[in-house]
Amino acid sequence: MIVKILQKSKTFRAVRYNTNKVEKDTGELLKVSGFEALSGFSQLKPQDYINYLSSIAALNKRVVYPQFHAMISSKGRAADKQSLVVLAEKWLSGMGYGHQPYMLIFHNDTENNHIHMVSSRVDKQGNKISDAFERIRAYRVLNQLMEKDEKKLAAEAVSEAMEYRFSTAAQYLMILETKGYSVKLVGNTYRLAKFGELVADVDTAKINSSLAGMGFSEDRKLQLRKIFEKYRPLTNANLLPVLEKHSGGAHGKILGYSSELSERLSADFGLGLEFVFHFKDHKSPYGYTVIDHAKKNVFKGGEIMALAKFAVDLSTAPHQSLSSIASNIPFQPGHFPEENMLLEVLPHLVNEDFNSGLVEDSYTGDFDFGFDIADDIDDEQINGRNRKKQKKTGINTR
């Protein structure tokens, strides 16, 4: 399960975006709360909701971006629309939007069921809803609702990583980083953070005492080398950058590297492999690591096959352009609709103080969210398909 706070906006364009989904039968308006002033209307239009939210936002001119637009997504169909509604209600309360007018719209146009939430960052008294540490709190609230104890999970991850065979402390830490933990060395202790919270400590002495103590499996290296050699001529091995995505389709910094070959070896054959390519700035990778989850080994890639050999493409498959392949490599997980690409209600079930423990100068770490689903942008934004419009009860799109 992931949560994403979507792009800010000076207007309430997300209302029209989501009602367009309803109109095209790829979305369903499941709940509207806090719009009692509109109860006298016989048939509400999207503009009525927009006007109401705008009138509340006008109570505080200092808030430049009054729209609150967020999304919670399950992995695949693990959560149905009813359970997502309940979760969204509780999450909104935990984020301080329990008394706010809001709309809940379920989307079914991707491989992952997800629900959008639209509200106002200004309340009916003209006060701004706090956005301090908003993105960190978003996951804290969600994890508490899912009854996930991050410190307990971190302790388990630290212990499980110790069961791997590794030859350097960096390799051990790499196992934890692939699980979404940020690591920072403080004195003789590595401090682990996730979602802005310190969740575990690991002494350097403990890591050093485990370095290659059990030895590596030469048979496993030989097995992987044979598999690499077998499939390298059959699959495109060119390494391509996975780029950070910005609004409007622009690309930002390089987040990592991948290839069709590494993706295939990761996904197929039940090998349990994970590839980490090492690079600096915008230069090409200079090495790689193979994390063997199935047999619990961490190998320097060159011990199995030199990078210069592993990354040379011997396949006869047609090559795609750099931008085409880079945009399709499933590296960045999550569902990230962007508002500049768009066309254009709540019980109080959570009482805990989700802001406790967060102070302005506290260490939060350069953490990686570690989402568990693949990049899953709404198909309407990508393909621009023209579906037959179907009118839905309770919403007039005229």
Describe the fold and architecture.
- The protein folds into two domains: 2-148 and 336-357 and 371-383, 2-Layer Sandwich (BirA Bifunctional Protein, domain 2); 218-328, no CATH class.
- The chain is of the alpha+beta class and 398 residues long.
- The chain is elongated.
- 30% of the residues lie in helices and 20% in strands.
- It has helices at residues 13-23, 46-57, 81-94, 134-145, 150-161, 169-178, 204-208, 218-231, 260-267, 301-304, 307-310, 322-328, 379-383, and strands spanning 2-5, 27-33, 67-73, 102-107, 114-120, 182-186, 189-194, 197-203, 240-245, 251-258, 273-278, 287-292, 297-300.
- The chain starts with a strand and ends in a 15-residue tail after the last helix.
- The strands form four sheets. Strands 1-3-5-4-2 form a five-stranded antiparallel beta sheet, with helices on both faces.
- Helix 1 packs antiparallel against helix 2 and helix 3 crosses helix 4 (134-145).
Can you summarize this structure?
The strands form four sheets. A five-stranded antiparallel β-sheet has the order 1-3-5-4-2, with helices on both faces. A three-stranded antiparallel β-sheet has the order 6-7-8. With 398 residues, it is of the alpha+beta class.
Which labels suit this protein?
398 residues; alpha+beta; BirA Bifunctional Protein, domain 2; five-stranded antiparallel sheet; three-stranded antiparallel sheet; 13 helices; 30% helix; elongated; disordered C terminus; Relaxase/mobilization nuclease domain-containing protein; Endonuclease_MobA/VirD2
Supply the number of helical segments: 13
What's the alpha carbon Rg, rounded to whole Å? 24 Å
CATH topology of the largest domain: BirA Bifunctional Protein, domain 2
Helix content: 25-40%
Q: How many runs of DSSP E, i.e. beta strands? A: 13
Separation of the first and last Cα atoms: 35 Å
Overall 3D shape: elongated
Q: Which CATH architecture of the largest domain?
A: 2-Layer Sandwich
CATH class of the largest domain: Alpha Beta
- Quaternary arrangement of the chains shown? single chain
Percentage beta strand:
15-25%
In the predicted model, the low-confidence regions spanning at least 5 consecutive residues are 317-398
What would the average pLDDT be, to the nearest integer? Answer: 79
**How is the biggest beta sheet arranged?**
5 strands, antiparallel
* Lateral arrangement of strands in the main beta sheet: 1-3-5-4-2
How many domain units?
2
Structural class: alpha+beta
Strand and helix order = EHEHEHEEHHHEEEHHEEHEEEHHHH
